[in-house]
Design goal:
Oligomer: single chain
Number of strands: 11
Largest sheet: 3 strands, mixed
Structural class: mainly alpha
Radius of gyration: 23 Å
Helix content: 55-70%
């Protein structure tokens, strides 16, 4: 039902004016032109998000003291903890790559959980505090660069892959990671920034969006395309087993998995490490072309959301390398080392994520605005 006398609601993506409409419980009112969510009537409130966030915090604190995985070979044993992935890359002479892994697995989740908990408690008590709006922006940054769910998939794949090199076993940290990822995902799905602002007594003033252009995403797209060349041409991993050393590129490693009969793992790595980066480049290039030709539509907005969502999963290969580098270190019996392509591939992942983030979807629409219409539930 339309809200009587309510001011028109402008879509932040395409600028279409709508008459505000309250959707049924559990439904979202979307823009009729580009399908951008405008008003959501959530079934769960911020208290539910707070409960999930507390569960995730307990799980991640416990996780730091427990091993994620252990390997056994010739009477020797090695284990790895959450902070050990970045340390393994530091030990291999790749401090920048190790720092980036720590941002994705340690710093990002800490900022995300601590910020969410502080904001949720403040909203529940309806007590604003200095800097809470900055914390809300910081929360958005942390949510983009926090990737524990990618680590979960990397652990599953590495468990099956390591079986050909040593005897792996999962630790209690893996169970805490599953609990933490599940609870954190649920908490952030329910977390509603608009409701937090309302409870803290802040109404965002209406202002026209800043001028936007595609120069930044185009430059980042070009830089990502350049870094993908050494990322695919240079060796990404060096594996030694009983004195026999094998050096593989990204595609060469995928072929090794297929030859070993690990078809499922090979397909996942192929999608995450090969198709996703190239798909993001092609997808964003298409969006820039569509924006310049002024022939965009709702499909292009959905494509932008999709390539934004899949961007983080390209980190799978980097986390696999970090896991293997931390676990397979048995001297002359066997070792695993990251190759020179690893930093280039990580740089390509970062650049493509930034390129998609810097592309404002409103560039996909021209200045013409259809007449005001009720939002679509």
């Amino acid at each position: 039902m339309n809200a009587a006398g309510a001011a028109p609601l402008d879509c932040p993506t395409c600028g279409t004016a709508h008459q505000p409409a309250a959707p049924p419980p559990g439904r979202v009112a979307c823009c009729r032109r580009c399908s951008t969510p405008l008003i959501e009537n959530r079934r769960f409130n911020l208290d539910t998000s707070l409960a999930f966030a507390l569960t995730a915090a307990v799980a991640f604190v416990t996780l730091t003291f427990l091993p994620l995985m252990s390997v056994h070979k010739a009477g020797l044993q090695r284990s790895i903890h959450l902070d050990g992935l970045g340390d393994a890359l530091f030990a291999q002479g790749m401090p920048l790559l190790g720092t980036f892994v720590n941002v994705c697995l340690v710093i990002g989740p800490v900022l995300l959980l601590s910020g969410a908990l502080v904001l949720l408690f403040a909203a529940r008590l309806q007590r604003p505090f200095p800097g809470w709006r900055f914390m809300l922006r910081l929360l958005s940054f942390a949510q983009r660069w926090s990737m524990p769910e990618v680590l979960f998939l990397a652990l599953v794949i590495s468990f099956l892959k390591i079986d050909t090199l040593a005897a792996p076993s999962v630790g209690m940290g893996f169970a805490m990671l599953v609990l933490g990822v599940t609870a954190l995902t649920a908490a952030m799905q329910i977390f509603d920034p608009a409701e937090v602002r309302r409870r803290l007594g802040y109404t965002r003033p209406h202002s026209p969006p800043p001028a936007a252009n595609d120069s930044a995403p185009l430059a980042l797209l070009a830089a990502a395309a350049i870094t993908l060349i050494p990322a695919n041409a240079l060796p990404i991993m060096e594996v030694s087993l009983y004195g026999k050393t094998t050096v593989n590129t990204i595609f060469g490693g995928i072929l090794v998995l297929w030859r070993e009969g690990l078809w499922g793992i090979g397909l996942i790595v192929f999608i995450a490490s090969f198709l996703v980066p190239l798909g993001k480049l092609a997808g964003l290039g298409w969006l820039i072309f569509r924006a310049r030709t002024a022939r965009s539509g709702a499909f292009d907005v959905k494509l932008h959301r999709f390539i934004d969502f899949i961007g983080r999963w390209s980190m799978l290969d980097i986390l696999l390398i970090a896991l293997l580098a931390g676990l397979i270190q048995f001297g002359s019996l066997g070792y695993d080392r990251p190759g020179p392509a690893a930093p280039a591939f990580a740089a390509a992942v970062i650049l493509t994520i930034l390129a998609v983030e810097s592309f404002p979807p409103r560039l996909l629409f021209n200045n013409s605005r259809p007449s005001s219409a009720p939002a679509q539930s």
